[in-house]
Every structure is written in structure tokens, then in C-alpha cells.
Amino acid sequence: KEILEKYHDLFTVQWEGVIGNMHVPSQAEWEQLLTSCSAFLFYGMERFVSHVLLNRLVAMNIPKCHLMILLDLVRSQQSYQRITNSDIHKSCLHIALERPTETAMLLSLTGVGCVVAVQWYTSLQENAERLEILLQNLLSIGRTAGQTVHILQK
């Protein structure tokens, strides 16, 4: 929340969504946010796609979303229990589609222009540092997504 407030005025006053533990977004809320945004940021626990219905996501048309940043793959005891209980009801293929590379491909097929995502499990603190670097370079300095990812790789 601190980071978003820091960069709020540099980009737009129209930032909207769910922050913190306000509530768990419904499927309809996810769909509304995804289809109406020009950029989308997910900063949360476990796999992003585990929070939305995969069959609904692949059927979506999201061409207005030029940039999607997925800072996910953070695990806690509680999130691990939730994902384990959820994965029991999914096929191996479905779970495979929730991996980072497959998620990026699916989002690209729905029309998302650029996907920036982590590839392995990490911590909230590491993702916070990534978010700070991303927003500083994209919004304050005005670098492209490619230039910014290159900086992150260093």
C-alpha cells in the first residue's frame, strides 16, 4: 500500500482494485478489473491463476491491458493449505497451466500486451523490492517494460 501511494500521483488517480485484506475478490470482480484496466498488478500469495477460474480466464478478451505485473508465488502456511485443498480438485493439466510460463502464454492469448512475472517461489519482501524497482523505472524514470525487466534481472 505504501508503494502504491508513493507512485499514485505519477501515473493516474484512477488506480482501483482490492488492496490488503479488504475482502476476497469474487470471480465477477476479477473479470471486471481485468477487462477494464490498461495495466494490472497482482501482488499476492501463491499462483495468480489459482485465484481466478481458469476456464473463465482463457475465454476473456483483455486487449486493453497493455501491461500485467504478477508478483505472486509467495507461500505461507495458510496459503499453502488453501492451495493444497484447491489443487486436490484440479487435474494435473490444470495445475500445469497455472505455472508462470503457461500463465504468461494464456494471458498473452487473451490479449494482454506484456506480462512481467516471477518464475519461482519468493517472499513478500522480495516482491516488495521488485515492485519498488518496477514502479520507479516504469513511472518515475519512464523506462520501457523491457528495460525495466533487464534491470530486475541484474
TrEMBL record:
Q: Name one GO biological process term.
A: axoneme assembly
Top-rank taxon of the source lineage equals Eukaryota
InterPro entries named among the record's database cross-references: CFAP46
Give the protein name, as stated in the record: CFA46 protein
What organism is listed for this UniProt entry?
Sclerurus mexicanus
